[in-house]
Design brief:
Three copies of one chain form a homotrimer.
Chain A (H helix, E strand, L loop, with lengths): L5 E5 L9 E4 L12 E7 L9 E7 L2 E6 L5 E7 L2 E3 L18 H4 L10 E6 L6 E3 L2 E3 L10 E8 L6 E11 L5 E11 L4 E10 L5 E2 L1 E8 L9 E3 L2 E6 L2 H4 L18 E7 L6 E7 L5 E8 L5 E7 L3 H4 L1 E7 L6 H6 L5 E2 L4 E12 L1 H15 L5 E2 L9 H6 L1
Parallel strand pairs in A: 18-26
Antiparallel strand pairs in A: 1-11, 2-3, 3-4, 4-5, 5-6, 6-7, 8-16, 9-10, 11-12, 12-13, 13-14, 14-25, 15-24, 16-23, 17-20, 18-19, 19-22, 20-21, 21-25, 22-23
Chain lengths: 394, 394, 394
């Protein structure tokens, strides 16, 4: 058995996506279960009709990927810890049921329910106008399907399981992006590795807007949970977020009618350019940890939405090329990398689950170590250059 | 054979909708045919590709339900009497082909062709703005698919055939409705029973807009046909409808270029809270009769659209929580019931077909009896509080 | 074996589209290959999921038709000559992924990648308002699927292979069009014949907007290629096109950032009412030739888009009922034929490939002969009555 990828789907070579699975021949010494497993199937019924799912699992963790929704991560599990949240949108939504123009350009919210969805690639942030371009909330990529999917297994001890998918976001007289996204599990690790390569297939340089909307609910999020990151500088997005600066790092329990709060931040990287952000539950026994390349994702947004459980009790940890403001603002502030014709922008990050006090303490120590570089600069009000409301107040 | 429901579709438990049928083992003494029958299949080709159909039939009547279109009723037949109408939209339209934003928010009309479709749940009425909300004609529910479908058979003599379906209308930062709709045929009755339970799955109270657009054409509708109901008060919707007050209860034959007319009314209920409206053909030999709970559907709209056959010769009998005006107007007039978190709004009604002069006379008598409570109050002009045009004229 | 059509798809009679093929029992004397072949299949994956394809081939030429996209022609081949172009949109796009309201009404461009797509039927041209109607770029027909498809084979020597498809463009309170489109290959000809019959199924006369967006790239288009037609009168569409009047008939190689140029023209018909337009490569060894009925398609548009290869290096030869201006302008200038209830508008044209200098010379001679009627009248600036910018300048 070799590392040859198995093609699960390919429009060009007429490979249709059909349910299947691959299971490790090796059994775990501890559990007696296969040490890795991949399964794939198509959801049926309701707004999920036709949504493809690929599940990858190792001994510690399982994760479900949605090729039909821009290679987003639906949800997962690490031991008894659920990865994801409970959106008012109960099931993954086929893009045919997401009209981005609905709700005055907020139609993206009809399909928002994943652990991880990408915002971009031509634009993210709120709906609005950018010259002649009409922008809708968070762009098209999360509602575009993969045309090619391949699964690679390295069956050696310490091997890995890897799914790659290609998604095109293209239009005539518009940007022509190709996202190649790879999700990898390595043997024995409670970690999901992600590498994205975004290529400009067009003939002109184009600015890229790419943000990872990573959304976490219980059991990590709860009253008394907190988020941590090695902050260089932080500011509330708007007056509503400024109200919460006294408890910016902690979370409340669910409150019906709670209005969302968002914070923008720059983080300290380590010597290799990587940084860490994590969400820890109140007892410090469970942590959801994000490690990522700060160079390619210099902007970090935290989204607090501790509303009623039924309305989507969730927080977002969101690294990106930019802050999720309207594109002309981000462009004016130089936060949209220009990708030349044929050029590729590569991002890399991982999600690690800390299960138990020791594991959590080790993850927190990494944040503390980076924070020792300098104390965090906390702005109590929105910051000019980061938030349009602060500029217009100036 | 028991009353255990047969699951035809369920996203959660991975039951895929596949063609099938169930046929009564008992044959009719009169016809030699099975006394009941259920069949289900998927339409293929054109804009109908992927639309699921479930047909229920007893000895007298058959009806086709469209799970893919919000559990609407496509059409049916009672003896030789066709139930439904001939829309310019020839076949049931998959929601993927209905862009609600088309035609300046009138895109719902791309899919309008059923005997019964629901308007709502977050809003119905014309397109327009309600604060920050952009409303499209008649809301989303008619273009959302069921994620769960179950069929129950009571095979005893006098038994019933029942289809239940669940449809979610949800969005992040928006209302989160679940419609559970049950369509039932009872043995030996020329009647379709419907029960809808609409539940607010969200964490905040939300106003409900729910109207049943029940659309009837030939052979009930024709020159000289009339509608009847025990009217407490009636008013034309607008000046165009006011032009027709002299012949408000009767219908003309098809007229190319006819402009639609709509009338709003409150009906008298009986002691159990039910009321009746019916459409009778010119010879009084065929009637389409609606019985419904007036308490939960206090607003009754009649829609006359006696245009050319080719453009959709049809009339609508439309009970609802509200009149189909723009939502802020209906809210201001207290016509939108507020559903608390977890609360359910239940509506119940039936469609009975009168086939032959005797049957028709019996149905008409029920209306007359209720009308005896008080003579109808007929406004010749739009009424303030019911029609925005009347308020602004005041 | 007779001429009975084989039904490949029919919603009404429950014939589902399934992959298949028909191959001539007769082999070519020259090539040893079957003298004709038809194959049909469904694309899978990405935005092409569910797009139906029918391929017709004779000994000289093959062409792929897209029933799911309004019977458009995807692409083809004639010997070594590729028919089509390379759009930034890589693969045929299922209409579920084309939101016509995207990009401020330019969403049609999300799906634009065919050799031939129809613009219409209720409107074509740019997005905008026409009284109460909200128009989107180039209308709905290219993103509506066929509900009926039939394939006819005439197996005799000199026989033909013919695909007919029916597509409805309908809406309640809107026009109700049926397009019946037939694509035919005749034995031994390097020619694709097309006949369209557009019927008004509604009850009122309706103006028709129908334009054929025929898009050609390499090897016909290249630096030094030229287009030719027997011009009565020609004018640039706008100031940008006027800049190119000095080289109106020739093409440049790809230029990144090139802004499109369009020219409007009336052509001379021959005695039977047909005319010819062709695109010839620089060495005059390959020509893409369009023959069409000028009476039913009196308006001819040439679209030059010699941008970077990666952005869609292409030119359009576009006969139509009208110029692709906003509908009220075309109506005001009397260019939209009014189709009575039940009336049919029939267009007929063919695409012939000239492969080799001799064949090309013969095709060019036809243009020259028609041009001898009168020298072309070339307007150097946009013409009042053809271009809104010229009227408003007047």
């Amino acid at each position: 058995m070799a590392n040859t990828p198995r093609i699960l789907l390919d429009t060009a070579s007429h490979v249709e996506f059909c349910p299947g699975e691959m299971v490790s021949p090796t059994l775990s010494k501890s559990s007696g279960q296969p040490v890795w497993k991949a399964r794939w199937w198509t959801l049926r019924g309701g707004v999920s009709e036709g949504v493809q799912v690929v599940e990858l699992a190792n001994e510690l963790l399982e994760i479900r990927i949605l090729p039909t929704r821009g290679m987003g991560l639906w949800n997962g599990r690490c031991g008894s810890l659920e990865l994801g949240w409970h959106s008012p949108v109960a099931n993954p939504v086929h893009p045919a049921y997401v009209n981005l123009q609905d709700r005055g350009g907020l139609g993206w919210l009809h399909g928002f329910q994943e652990l991880l969805c990408r915002c971009g690639l031509a634009f993210n942030g709120p709906p609005g106008q950018d010259g002649g371009d009409t922008l809708t909330l968070h762009g098209r990529i999360a509602n575009l399907p993969a045309h090619k999917l391949s699964l690679t297994v390295d069956p050696s001890p310490g091997g890995a399981l890897e799914l790659s998918g290609e998604v095109d976001e293209a239009s005539m007289f518009g940007p022509r992006w190709r996202l190649k996204s790879t999700t990898r599990l390595e043997s024995g690790e409670p970690t999901i590795h992600l590498v994205d390569e975004v290529t400009n297939l067009g003939g002109q340089p184009v600015p890229l807007s790419l943000l990872y909307h990573i959304n976490v609910g219980r059991p990590f999020l709860e009253a008394g949970a907190k988020w941590e990151a090695p902050i260089r500088e932080l500011a509330p997005r708007d007056p509503r977020a400024a109200e919460g600066m006294d408890e910016v790092f902690t979370y409340r329990g669910p409150e019906p009618g709670y209005q969302e709060q968002a914070y923008f931040a720059e983080l300290h990287p380590d010597d290799t350019g990587w940084t860490t952000a994590l969400l820890t539950n109140s007892s410090e026994a469970a942590a959801f940890c994000l490690n990522y390349q700060a160079r390619t994702m210099p902007c970090f947004t935290v989204w607090k939405n501790t509303t009623a459980e039924a309305d989507g009790y969730v927080t977002g940890l969101e690294p990106g090329t930019n802050y999720p403001n309207l594109r002309p603002y981000e462009r004016a502030h130089g936060r949209l990398p220009s990708i030349p014709p044929g050029g590729t922008y590569r991002t890399e990050f991982s999600i690690t689950i800390g299960d138990g006090r020791e594991a959590v303490a080790a993850l927190r120590e990494r944040v503390s170590r980076l924070q020792r570089k300098a104390p965090p600069l906390l702005n109590m009000y929105p910051k000019a250059g980061w938030s349009p409301c602060a500029d217009s107040n100036a």
